[in-house]
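Hi Y.,

Following your request, here is the sequence exactly as I used it, all 54 residues.
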Amino acid sequence: MEFHQGRLIDHVHLQVADVAASKRFYRAVLRSLFTRLGLHMSELTKLVTFSTIK
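Below is the corresponding structure, written out as tokens. Let me know if you'd prefer a different format.
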């Protein structure tokens, strides 16, 4: 994977009512983006984490 300097999103914190539905949604969005960038979904697990904060 090649990384580029410049603008980037480092962290995003979202408060959601349905964590499971949110994970499905954002994984689908990221899968589409990764496909367009020519990246494999295995890279997603290296770059994106989902967690709950109570």
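The mean pLDDT is 77.

Thanks again,
Q.
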